Amino acid sequence: MKTINQEVEDRIARHPCYSEDAHHHFARMHVAVAPACNIRCNYCSRKFDCANESRPGVVSEVLKPEEAVRKVLVVAGEIPQLSVVGVAGPGDPLANPEKTFATFRGVAEKAPELKLCLSTNGLRLLEFIDQIQELNIDHVTITINAVNPQIGQHIYSYIFYEGKKYKGIEAAEILINNQLKGLEALTEKGILCKVNSVFIPGINDQHMEEISKAVKKRGAFVHNIMPLIVTPDTVFERNGVRNPTSKEIQEIQEKCSGSLKMMKHCRQCRADAIGLLGEDRSAQYTKDKIMNVPIQYDPIARETIQQELELKVKEKSKKKQEREALKQRKIESGSSSLRIAVTTRGNARVNLHFGHAKEFLVFDVKEKEIKFVGVRKVQSYCVGKVGCNTKQVPILAETAEILKDCQMLISSGIGKAPQKYLQDRGIVSIIQSGNIEELLYESSKYYKYMNHMSVEYV
Ligand SMILES: C[S@@+](CC[C@H](N)C(=O)[O-])C[C@H]1O[C@@H](n2cnc3c(N)ncnc32)[C@H](O)[C@@H]1O
Ligand code: SF4
Ligand code: SF4
């Protein structure tokens, strides 16, 4: 039986925004069918429909639902990694519900394997919960920039709700109330929800942790704290609000990560973006082109390619989780010193290739203190003519077991395969030759930095 975590993993394994590992392999597209909006955020401008501008709210052309469905089929035929189709503007999808749902219906009918994704300010969410569920829209993003109306009133100029315009604190109250209730209603139905919060210096920067906690409580799956992009012709631009620094974003993400999983790979895409998250191929798919090229959509070929990609993503995620768990165990097991193994053929130097080592010297290093722990005997990894990149798994497994309490290994050389094998088991290997003591000091300083990185082997 699958655990809840496995089920969620399966659901997000092909979603480039919900799964960090998937974003290297799977592509998304936004279809710009929703031009109108029912609120006014003080940072948003949709006036610039320039092909060179890449930020939310920007599009080259707004499409009718039937044009959007055709575009999806053309793109799906040419980009087999396409797994998600979203409506994210350029205005608000739920301020244009007929166009939005007609598009989703058309895509679900013609290309049912594509995941559907909706990005909204949440003002009208509660009205559409059933439709969202019926259409199998499995992923919804809600932008929540404040959970306190005192703060919200400085972010939203006004809202249009049930035929009436509201301003100030009253507008913020209605919006926040609807967003949080909408979020709760969606998560109760098992729909995965991501919350976007635009980080606005001097306005909601001190409020982010409260937002994170509030949305976690209502079942949000991931929190995407995104930097404000100060845009011409907006209230914030006129008031001199600045863009946040990347350090500020990193710090707030770290602070909030205790309460909720953070999305750190958002590219703040255009409302008509196409491709892998790092790229934008929207200029290739103009209305003119999509209406005139043949559709080459082949669901079977697409599925074969996507299954392979999904396997890769799942393998990567599993390894990452194992590494994290190992790191955690090592941190919990306690000492603030670092246990380091070195290879040597004598002279108090690291001067031996990992593959030729029949023993390792193990040390505990704590600031300026080095304590010799002992010698660990092993079978050497390279036997005769067998090279270091050839997998000698049983020997390697034994070595990894013998060094399992070490966080680091220093040797004069090591092949890629054993390096990766050890890395996957929480042992970072450094290639260096020289005096053992000096290398132990140096490398222990270096480890602090390496410990925050996860080395990727593609
Ligand atoms: C263009 S909106 C479309 C969806 C919907 N109207 C909404 O606001 O959630 C997509 C995302 O971009 C964000 N966004 C729009 N303009 C921005 C700006 N100038 N700086 C940072 N984020 C912005 C929105 O807050 C939202 O999270
Ligand atoms: S809700 Fe979205 S589209 Fe509307 S003003 Fe805010 S950012 Fe722009
Ligand atoms: S804007 Fe962020 S969440 Fe939306 S498609 Fe781009 S990367 Fe994904």
From TrEMBL:
The keyword Lyase applies. This is FeMo cofactor biosynthesis protein NifB. SMART domains: Elp3. It comes from the Bacteria. It comes from Niallia hominis. Residues 302-329 form a coiled coil. PANTHER family: FEMO COFACTOR BIOSYNTHESIS PROTEIN NIFB, FEMO COFACTOR BIOSYNTHESIS PROTEIN NIFB-RELATED. Residues 19-272 form the Radical SAM core domain. Keywords: 4Fe-4S, Coiled coil, Iron, Iron-sulfur, Lyase, Metal-binding, Nitrogen fixation, S-adenosyl-L-methionine. Its cofactor is [4Fe-4S] cluster.
